[in-house]
Amino acid sequence: MLKRIFLFLFCFTFADTGWHKDKIMIYIDNSTDNLIINKSQTKTNQEDLNKLLVKESVKSISPWLSNARPSDRDGDIFLNRFYVVSFYDSSKSINERIKLFNQKLYIKSVEPVAIIKNHLRPNDMFYELQYAIPQINATNAYNLWDIENGEIPGHIQNDTIVVAVNDYPVMWYHPDLIDNIWQNLAEDADGDGTVFEYTGTEWILDPGDINNLDDDNDGFIDNLIGWNAHSNEGDIGVNLSLSHGTNVAGCVSSMTNNETGIASVGWSIKIMGITNCDPGGSITSGYEGILTAAQMGADIINNSWGSSGGPDYAQALINTVLNEYTSLIVASSGNAGTNIANYPAAFEGVVSVTSTSEGSVFSCWATRHETVDIAAPGDNVFTTTTSPNEGGFYYNYATGTSFSAPIISGALGLLKSIYPDGDNAFLISKIKDNANYYNDMDGNCNGENLNGLVGTGELNIREAIINPTPISLAVSNINVLSTTGNIIPGDTTEIILTILNASGSTPLRELSMSISTEHERVSIVNGYFNTNQVLPSGGFVEASFLITSAHDMSYGDINFDLNIDARRSGNFPSNYSGHEDSLFLQIEIFLPFGSLQQYGYPISNVEIEHPPLVVDLDNNSILEIYFSSDSTLYGKMIGGLDVPGFPFYSSSKITTTCASGDIDNDNFRELVFGTEDGYIFSLKRNGSQLFNYEHEDLIIGHPVLSDIDNNGYLDIVFISTNDSLSKVHCIDYTGNDIENFPVYIQNPIYKAPAIGDINNDGLKSIIFYDKENTVYITDYLGQTNSIAVDYDFSNLNNSPTITNLNEDPYLEIILSDSSGNIYVIDYQGILLNQISIENTIQNNIVVSDLDQDGSAELVFYDNNNRLHLFNYSSGSFVEGWPVSLNGSLVSEPIIVNLDNDNDLEILLNTAEGFMYVMHHDGLFYQNFPFISQDSLFSVPSIADIDNDNDAEIIFGTNTSLNVIDMDFLVSNQQSWNVYRGNIRRDGFFNFQPSNLSLENKSIPAFYYLNHNFPNPFNPTTRITYSLPKKTLVSIIIYDLLGKKVNTLIDKELQEPGTKTVQWHGKNQEGLSLSSGVYFYSLETKDFLQKKKMILIK
After folding, report:
1. Are 1075 and 1019 in contact (CB under 8 A)?
2. 837/822 Cα distance (integer angstroms)
3. pLDDT tens per residue across span 733-786
4. Of 142, 136, 149, 148, nearest in space to 118 by CA
5. Does residue 849 contact residue 904 with C-beta atoms inside 8 Å?
6. What is the enclosing helix (H) or strand (E) of 320?
7. Checking CA distances to 178, which of 81, 217, 878, 945 falls within 20 to 30 Å?
8. End-to-end CA distance of the chain, in Å?
9. Residue 646: which residues within 8 A CB-CB, separation 6 or more?
10. Rounded distance, CA 556 to CA 655, Å?
């Protein structure tokens, strides 16, 4: 019931030097109306300009000076007519852009946009030696803070951003690191506000805090500034001969703008020292160090080390740190100079960093790999060290991806200080999505192509800070506070919406929400919700609304719009104003009105194209639901549970509707269906195969079950075709062709057949037509004759329907075409009637007696979305019809009695998501149409799935199987209540018009015992038979073993004609019989015939 809408908002920013590669300035000619720009800055009121914006992949168009007034002018140059056009793609030449836009008459001038440079330059002593700082655009980024007035990059009020350096021991008392060393004040045992102190000659850990106690209960004793993972103690073990960790720490966050040493991207981010090596410099505890840093609360864990092996257990550690501790892990890709995986950098979830050199060129000595995420300078990086250089200062050059990774870690720390409510996915997308492209990304090293192996580009920290990240909000849950969990028409109901800000999405604040709908039967009592709560990445907020509706409100999923106003949330530096923009988002949601889904339903993530089959295969009086999605046949029952043995998986897509019947006479029905690769499957009730039948052509329509050869077993009839030839197949329950089948037809056939005893001879016939509109009848011997050859049928377009529409004992065949004609022919091919409308008939013709007046109605739908009702006896359309509906019909309607009155209702689906229920007079059933947010591609079913004496509607959509609990009281009246009239799918409706007298005016030519109806039945069935002369008649019921259980007529003298007798499922003593197969016989002096029927309870 939920739909998600994403809103992507961007703003333009400034690069390093010269001219912007992705922006131009245009001036709209004074003779042209002022531009009106939409909120997302992607469209104007100038249509020709809009086409150009789309063609050139424009990110935004916005006024150059947002505060320029119409009166601000320099002669005939008006300042409010300048606009900045920003492009997604910066690879196209700006000169080409200028030339293209200059061709438009309404654009007076086009110019490049100069890059505005910042004036802040860190005053650190060795800044000039640090090419990396301006190369990653950190120098320009610093200008976002009002540093002169006390703003500090990386500082966050009442919190600290911590980067753990999991490495050699960090020389924490280095003069350019000491103020940025993390202090665990929870271990400040003496309460003096610090965990280290200066003695006058050196820095030492505060002796007053070293008490051999775990003061903060974090599992570590005296972990004042970090931890030694090798020796498992709080003393990180500074070793001046091991400088690597100190080199790394300086790249993360050496103190910046302090007139000492070097600058860093992290500026004031805190450093946690995690020692992972022994005193000799062998890394023994790298992975322990990662876990330790996470346990101690590090936000980011830098790992400038690795190996070529990546064990699975280490991935488990990485996942734990990412998911349980939410620490961000950064690692260097390695210095192998080739394409190889290095771990932990190559583990999933780790930010892998490779190296660039001065001038933004790839360092060919660095490792490249498809798992690399981003690059940063790592070649001759000037950083802190543990021993003095020639000038006596503790700084020197270092080379390796070991020094690229901490620059990324420091950048992530700086970003987190600005966006403390952004999750790891958000921070990573910030650096990756805003990285600078450099030429070597599509170049090569030593003949090896680098494309796709060096990440998304080189770090650009300023762009990462100021470029907005896409916002992704969704309604993840709808809680309706009612007794049913749905909104009850006529009631006033509170709903609570859970709004989820996706992982990686921008954190938001100042949320203001409202809901609205265009549905005329709904009123919103309280449609507003406001909150000052920050909505972090990956977080959610709950909003409450109050809704009421009319009593006759439609059931189903009613669409509403959730409108959201918000602002970006963060600890923004004062010189960055982009966060102040108000954001507007609109999310379409669907609120559930009316009846509930049955417990255990819907079944999601399925696409259902064929009618669900509702049947009791195992005869336990509990119905099951069988349906297909792609190549899987599902069996479901109460509670959405799988039927034992299901689902069944075929080798290709299931392309037909399921038919069902007891084809092997074991007293249990089977399922029969076809697949895209030409198989016909028959499954038993436990999901095992009775048989599969393979052939090479496309199966048309669906299999049909009928006893063609009159041997007491149901046969499987289906049609296959190729471009020029079709086959009519008839196979038995063993999967073998019946003698004389298949029958070959020299034209394609596009519709499934119908099957019935059309000439009342006791034998079934197969009725179908081909591409040339020739109608055929095939008998059990495979003998095929074309009929109605004297009529020029054209464009026949639906499967035939068979029923009895007049006063003779023979069945009629109903056909329809795309020109709006319905043809009724008899078994000899004589045209009995033609009914015409102006539009194409869309569905198989459905037959039923809706008003129970003894006369059949033909029900059909046209391509103008109108449902028609034609009374065959009167020869006229029923008053009040056709009825116009919303959408195109899916296949055919079904006819049922839903309210237990004497009339039948019509139920049908449209592909546009509307389920209609209509009375016989064309009026809509209350609370219908049912509205689904999904497409409805199959015919629905009505059944009492849970045996609670009211019915459920079972229907499939393009996303789910649904079982809606209704208060329908479905009766057992004769009707076309499933697809193709019955679950055998034979297109036959056993209808007897009331004006067909039992003492028929025309005497039958021969004896005949008709099929009982209904069959299966509970508790009553009707047996019809024909007598050609006056004779003694017996109608006897036998069980499966041949034992006589009841005599309905005992040697009674009867006149010739067509007769009917009813059996109520009882024995001779009046006791009800159990479910099972029974036989009934017509016995006279010179005639005996038996047929099978099924009693189901």
Report:
1. no
2. 9
3. 999 999 999 999 999 999 999 999 999 889 999 999 999 999 999 999 999 999
4. 142
5. yes
6. helix 312-324
7. 217
8. 37
9. 626, 633, 634, 635, 636, 687
10. 28
Q: Residue 685 corresponds to which tokens in the numbers above?
A: 């009730």
The pair of structure tokens assigned to 797 is 């377009």
CB 1037 within 8 A of CB 1044: yes
Place of tokens 């800055």: 41
Place of tokens 């990412």: 322
What is the dihedral angle through the alpha carbons of 572, 578, 580, 586, rounded to the nearest 10 degrees?
Answer: -120
Structure tokens at 1007: 């004896």
What contacts 984, CB < 8 A, 6 or more positions away? 659, 660, 661, 704, 705, 706, 714
Task: Give me 710's structure tokens.
Answer: 């009159």
3-state secondary structure of 178: helix
What would the pLDDT profile of 64-115 be if each residue is shown by its tens digit? 888 888 888 888 989 899 999 999 887 788 888 898 999 998 999 999 887 6
Strand partners, 960: 604
CA distance 343 to 280: 22
Helices (H), 790-838: none
Give the 3-state secondary structure of 64-100.
Answer: CCCCCCCCCEECCEEHHHEEEEEECCCCCCHHHHHHH
- Let me know: does 976 contact 991? Beta carbons within 8 Å: no
Q: What is the pTM of this model?
A: 0.70
Cis peptide before 153 (omega within 30 of 0): no
Kind and range of the H or E run holding 252: helix 244-253
What torsion, rounded to 10 degrees, do the Cα atoms 989, 993, 997, 1003 define? -50
What pLDDT digit, counting tens, does each position of 524-541 carry?
Answer: 999 999 999 999 999 999
pLDDT digits (tens, 9 = 90+) for 312-337: 889 999 999 999 999 999 999 999 99
CA dihedral 819, 825, 830, 836 (to 10 degrees): -30
Per-residue pLDDT at 999 = 38
Yes or no: say if 940 and 909 are a contact pair by the CB < 8 Å rule. yes
